Amino acid sequence: MNRPTTMLLVVVTIILSVATKAQTSAQAGVQANGQASVQGDQAHAPATGGASASSTVLAQSNHTNAGLSSGTIFNATLSSPVDSKKSKPGDQVSARTAESVKAEGKTVLPKGTKLIGHVTQASARAKGATESTLAISFDRAILKSGQEVPLHVAIQAMAAAPTAASASDADLDTIAGGSAAGSGSVAGRSTVGGLTSSVTSAAGSVRNSAATVASAEGTAVNSTVNSTTEVASASRGTIGGLNASGQLTSSSRGVFNMEGLTLNSLGTSNTQGSVITSTGKNVHLDTGTRMLMVIQAMPNP
């Protein structure tokens, strides 16, 4: 092989070698870019998943306490009696809302919504002991549709179940009826035969009317005094009270018209609930006991 041919082959070999190296380098670069892209996507995926998880947690938190903020207050009544002597931890306690509970202008818990709780502590008054204790925690509501909504509710105030018309009102009605009947009977005994008999009958009627008025005034005074005494007794050691419709006002705290009972709304822990104690007897709550409820933050799992 002559010299020019040899030189040509060397040049061609060099060119082919350079081209091969360039192609290999390009392929390596493409592969590296592809791996970097995949790794970037993988690194981005957990972040997206984290954002999704955060959204889920946020959505769940929005449904906590049915969307009612902590501090929301509403009235409820006890659906069945509870007694510290007969109850044991875990026993169900139920109540119903006595008014609609709203959030941002929308009704969340309609009036009559069932509230479900349970007894967390119950101790009867043992011989030689001075107190009995009953602790209750309400943890969910059941809507009329049957849907259950998690809640964490404490009892802020309590009042005795409403009673029928007062005895003083009944006495006044009886007196009024008796007065009318008495007047008729006097008139019936009046004789037609003489002026003296008519005058005597009229005088007797006047005396009966005067006695009726005096009796009614005395009953009214006694009723006022009794009512004043009841309010003063109920207000001792408490805040607020009942409004004209018989519901506890939003600022009320403590126990009203339930002698010997005291209330600790928060208990000693989030899971214990509201603690009611009684001195001298067992804690007993009748059906219809009025309760002022307050929404609290959900306890940590």
Structure report:
The protein is α+β, with helices and mostly antiparallel strands. The protein has 3 domains: 3-65; 70-162 and 246-295, Lipocalin, CATH 2.40.128; 167-234. 42% of the residues lie in helices and 25% in strands. A 6-stranded antiparallel barrel has the order 1-3-6-7-8-13. Strands 2-12 form a two-stranded antiparallel ribbon. It has a two-stranded antiparallel ribbon with strand order 4-5. The protein is elongated and about 130 Å long.
Indicate the mean pLDDT.
Answer: 72
Instruction: Please bin the fraction of helical residues.
Output: 40-55%
Number of helices: 3
The largest sheet is: 6 strands, antiparallel, barrel
Distance between the termini: 91 Å
Report the strand count.
13
Principal-axes shape call: elongated
Structural class: alpha+beta
Low-confidence regions: 43-63, 165-200, 212-236
Q: How would you spell out the order of helices and strands?
A: HEEEEEEEEHHEEEEE
